[in-house]
Amino acid sequence: MANKDYSVALVVDASAKEVFRDINNVTKWWTEEFYGNSNKLNDEFTVHFGDVHVSTQKLIEFVPEKKLVWLVTKSRLNFIRDMQEWNNTKISFELSEEGEQTQVKFTHHGLVPEVECYKDCSKGWDYYIKGSLFKLLTTGKGKPEKKLQLK
Q1: Do 34 and 26 contact (CB within 8 A), yes or no?
Q2: With left for phi above 0 and alpha for psi between -120 and 50, is residue 42 left, alpha or beta?
Q3: More confident site: 14 or 51
């Protein structure tokens, strides 16, 4: 049976050390509105995308240059009925180095076609993983969600 969790793989011309560092630099590729830490096991952080998406992640696996897993401990997605649909899902990054390249396998465990946000959340992840994170890893500059500026 095929795995239905949202998953994507990238291959970049960078070391696993560089890739791991950049993934953990969440404000450079996901969102600038970031509170907390993402540097070691058991760190927790919260990300905001305006009032559309707020979620808190806990680092439950942290293997430098190999694997990173975030457990979503709290979420609020205001565009679906079950706003806490991400709660207890896991977001993983698995790295494997081959010569001068590193493959990143990204999976959002629990983000499956049967859940309400799958279509929109998959599009979001496509943008942030295939777009912003890929750009950060290949050009040094990602396209994270900008922090809202109060006027």
Answers
A1: yes
A2: left
A3: 14
Euclidean distance between CA atoms 109 and 91, whole angstroms: 6
Helix, strand, coil shares of the chain, percent, nearest 5, are 25, 40, 40
Q: Which residue has tokens 């079950």?
A: 82
10: three-class secondary structure by DSSP: strand
Query: Residue with structure tokens 């496509």?
Result: 126
- Cα–Cα distance between 44 and 80 in angstroms, integer? 25
| Domain regions of the chain by residue span | 6-139
How deeply is 7 buried, as exposed, middle or buried, from its count of CB atoms within 10 A (0-12, 13-18, 19+)? Answer: middle
20 has a pLDDT exceeding 90: yes
Nearest in space to 60 (alpha carbons), one of 47, 49, 75, 44: 44
pLDDT digits (tens, 9 = 90+) for 42-82: 999 999 998 899 999 999 999 999 999 999 999 999 999 99
Q: Reply yes or no on whether the pLDDT at 3 is more than 70.
A: no
pTM here? 0.93
Third-level CATH fold of 6-139: Alpha-D-Glucose-1,6-Bisphosphate; Chain A, domain 4 (3.30.530)
